[in-house]
Design a protein that fits this description.
With 181 residues, this protein is mainly α. 75% of the residues lie in helices and 0% in strands. The model has no long low-confidence stretch (mean pLDDT 89).
Length: 181
């Protein structure tokens, strides 16, 4: 929420230009979130089932579970979602923007969605025009673009995939499809 306040309290266009270091921090958050969720999907795709099986097996044998039940339930719920970190980001942003304190800070949902659409479009343009040679930098931009689109889709009433969307969604999808990293 603090990044949203700093970047979206005033005009998002000027804020993103004037506070590029904060915009980069938001991009870092999206990059981390998508990398984490990607690793979770690859390495822990069956973890939820394995964890549930482990708990049931211990219970059947009459052994006490060393992990407290509440913590075990939270872990199960966390791993049940395919992209748990992106889910947390979405829920946190929605909760923050629905509370009166976000209005007290001067953060409007329209400003947040405008900033997210600008970030997605700028990242798309940087990858599409091959501004960077490094595959790692391009992947960073694609993560930022994707995270911005996903969060925008959850916050905007029409979503990211409507014809009215300010995000050049077709171009973003094409860039993702064509990217070879």
């Amino acid at each position: 929420p603090k990044l949203l306040v700093a970047l979206c309290k005033d005009d998002p266009t000027s804020s993103l230009e004037d506070q590029q270091a904060l915009a980069k921090q938001l991009a870092n958050v999206f990059d981390f979130v998508l990398r984490f969720d990607q690793l979770k999907m690859v390495f822990f795709q069956n973890h939820s089932s394995d964890f549930s099986y482990y708990r049931r097996a211990l219970h059947r044998k009459g052994l006490s579970v060393s992990t407290r039940n509440e913590m075990a339930n939270r872990m199960s719920l966390f791993f049940a979602y395919p992209t748990p970190m992106m889910r947390v980001i979405n829920e946190t942003a929605i909760k923050f923007l629905s509370q009166p304190e976000s209005q007290d800070h001067g953060v409007k949902c329209e400003n947040v969605t405008r900033a997210l659409s600008m970030m997605a479009n700028v990242c798309h343009d940087m990858v599409a025009t091959k501004k960077f040679e490094s595959a790692e930098t391009n992947m960073f931009c694609l993560h930022c673009m994707t995270g911005s689109i996903i969060l925008f889709d959850h916050l905007h009433e029409d979503g990211a995939f409507s014809k009215k969307s300010p995000i050049h969604i077709k171009g973003c999808i094409m860039v993702l499809k064509k990217f070879v990293g």
